[in-house]
Amino acid sequence: MKKVAVIILNWNGAALLRRYLTTVVENTNPDIAEVVVADNGSTDESLEVLEKEFPTVKVIKLPENYGFAEGYNRAINVTDNEYTVLLNSDVRTPAGWLDPMLDYMEAHPEVGALQPKLLHDGVEGKDTFDYAGAAGGYIDCHGYPYCRGRIFDAVEDDGGQYDDITPSIVWASGACLMTRTALYKQVGGLDKDFFAHMEEIDLCWRIILSGSEVKMLPKSAVYHLGGASLAYGNPRKTYLNFRNNLLLLHKNLPEKDAKSTLFTRRLLDTLAWAKAVATFHWGDARAILKAHNDFRKMRKNYTQHPTRNLLKEMPECHCNIIVDYYLKGRKKF
């Protein structure tokens, strides 16, 4: 068995497979990794494309769309390689992208998860960080995710400013995330109730709480298109982001800290709802209300809380990104 399984989750993405899977097959070292596509019950021509155009790719046929989280969980239960890379179907991989990631994981047993530098695919003539993960993710004091190289809508060009390996980031992007398969299973994998969005942040938080570190490796870089599953501005995306962010905090903070943090978040989310109403974004306004209603129902499923508060432990989490960005004009990490 190869050391690494590079698993791409696909749902009705035949066009993306033709555009991006070719680069993964051509540029992934076959001596160390196998490329796997887990198909989430596609109804388009995805399976036919895989059979005819990518005969060397291993295909796992799932009977229905289990979402990002459970789709990967089911695929990993079948592959069971020592390392797993979760790779989005809209990621272009250049030559030699995987080798430094495997070398780093092998040399650093304390690292449980790793992402490469994540750049945006489609910007001609320059490398621009990608919204989904940029140069590694953090969370501010109120639980808002942000990245080195991307704070809210302010995205930087890559000029080597983040080509250092930090002590630890809080989360690695699910667009391209490498992890130790045994550790992935030990901490419970991706939370299927999240379905999609922020499930990788939840996973990385649990990996850190287990005693491992999460890193960004600038020696490796991939290019991510973004918005392939849900387009930016889609109310469904708004709903999942708001609901899952609340679940993330409820699950992974000590109970006392979670209550105070969530109280503040409810106030801030009320402002976000008011802004959506004031700007006539009715779909987003409804999505925010539904997110909070569903969170109140779902939080009962999570009764175990950690004793460590990562938001207090990690200095990068001490900032208030809302104040820094909107009031102080901070656009860079």
Question: In a few lines, what is going on in this structure?
Answer:
The protein is built from 11 helices and 12 strands. By secondary structure, it is α/β, with parallel strands linked by helices. The longest helix is centred in the C-terminal third of the chain and has 24 residues, at 255-278.
What would you say this structure looks like, in words?
By secondary structure, this protein is an alpha/beta fold. It contains eleven helices and twelve strands. Strands 3-2-1-4-11-6-12-5 form an eight-stranded mixed β-sheet, with helices on both faces. A hairpin with a 5-residue loop joins strand 7 (137-139) and strand 8. The model has no long low-confidence stretch (mean pLDDT 94).
Element layout with pairings:
Layout: E1 4-10, H1 14-27, E2 33-40, H2 46-53, E3 58-62, H3 67-79, E4 83-87, E5 91-92, H4 99-107, E6 111-120, E7 137-139, E8 145-147, E9 150-151, E10 154-155, E11 176-180, H5 181-186, H6 199-209, E12 213-224, H7 235-252, H8 255-278, H9 282-298, H10 310-313, H11 321-327
Parallel strand pairs: 1-2, 1-4, 2-3, 6-12
Antiparallel strand pairs: 4-11, 5-12, 6-11, 7-8, 9-10
Helix pairs in contact: 1-2, 6-7, 7-8, 7-9, 8-9
